[in-house]
Amino acid sequence: MFRIGTGFDIHRLVPGRRLVLCGVEFEFPFGLFGHSDADAPTHALMDALLGAAALGDIGHLFPDTDPEWEGADSIRLLEAVVALLRRKGWRVANADLTILAEAPKIAPRVQEMRERLAAPLGVPVDAVSVKATTMEKLGPIGAREGIAAQAVALLESVS
Ligand code: MG
Questions:
Q1: Averaged pLDDT, 111-125
Q2: 67 pLDDT higher than 90
């Protein structure tokens, strides 16, 4: 049995924060603002995984009112989501992410990001796709006010 899920996330770019996308840190004068490390593509991926299993969303699982998740490494949160899915009888088949960002350049780091996500997902690197697009300078993302990401993930029942 297969189940599919989608996820979306967006965070504001602010000065004085690290920029972490798919667990990979970028040299950039701005970072994403949020309670955790604000890794928007990893958040979108977790929501896709939870959505596929109809297990709610990361806001429900890791509330931003909980000091335990302050500054949290989103890759650790992803491990927790995958562990929850395993307990519910699911394994990840594949995932596909699109990052919407005017800057920095994502493409040179894509391989690193795929490897970073494949490990916690428990899948080979060729089952994780990371893509990026600019917004052609349109809207708040085009104006570099934030970075967004969308994800789709497929789960397969273990039994
Ligand atoms: Mg988020």
A1: 98
A2: no
